[in-house]
Amino acid sequence: MSIVKPRAPLPGEALPEVENNPDIERQWVVKAVAHSEAYFKLINAVDTTALRLTKTVFEKMSVDVISEDQMKSAQGKAVWGPFMMRFKERVQDFNFLTMLRVDSSKDYSQENTIVVPRIQFLAIEVARNREGKNTKITSS
Fold first, then answer.
1. Contacts of 131 (CB under 8 A, 6+ apart)
2. Domain map of the chain by residue range?
3. CA–CA gap between residue 17 and residue 29 (Å, rounded)
4. Is 34 left (phi over 0), alpha (psi -120 to 50) or beta?
5. Are 9 and 97 spatial neighbours (Cβ–Cβ below 8 Å)?
6. d(CA 126, CA 27)
7. What positions does the domain Polysaccharide biosynthesis occupy (predicted)?
8. 3-class DSSP state of 9
9. N or C: which end of the chain has fewer CB within 10 A?
């Protein structure tokens, strides 16, 4: 049995009209939870403020608490869409749906998790790590 990799629609793509398949949803949840657990172990294992990563495109975006509404607004899509497409050929599964903590000071939970394309997850978490936003959660 292979795992189906759900992906977010590319900018300008219509959402596919499909029925939710509970088996596929369970497979995705297992994979997404494994990814979030691995990431959480990683940020607990290293001093993330020492990483040499930069926040370029989203200099003014606060990464402490993410606004899903702002990210999915017309203005948010206008910025995120071109940013994401730059990584289409460079980051494997760049648009694979990935769980992101809304509030960087809190652990993964149903209330503190949204689903975003992987490249959004990476961009936000890179910025959080560089700014030391994950130190509160990793020190507890």
1. 49, 55, 63
2. 22-54+65-138
3. 20
4. alpha
5. no
6. 27
7. 24-137
8. coil
9. N
Handedness of CA 60, 62, 66, 67 (dihedral sign): negative
CA 53, CA 66: separation in Å to the nearest integer? 19
DSSP state string for 57-118: TTTT---SB--HHHHHSHHHHHHHHHHHHTTTTTSTTTTBEEEEESBTTS---STTEEEEEH
pTM above 0.70, yes or no: no
Angle, vertex CA 35, rays to CA 33 and CA 38, nearest 5: 110
Tell me the per-residue pLDDT of 64-118, one tens digit each, with 9 for 90 and over: 999 999 888 898 888 888 888 887 887 778 888 889 999 999 988 989 999 998 8
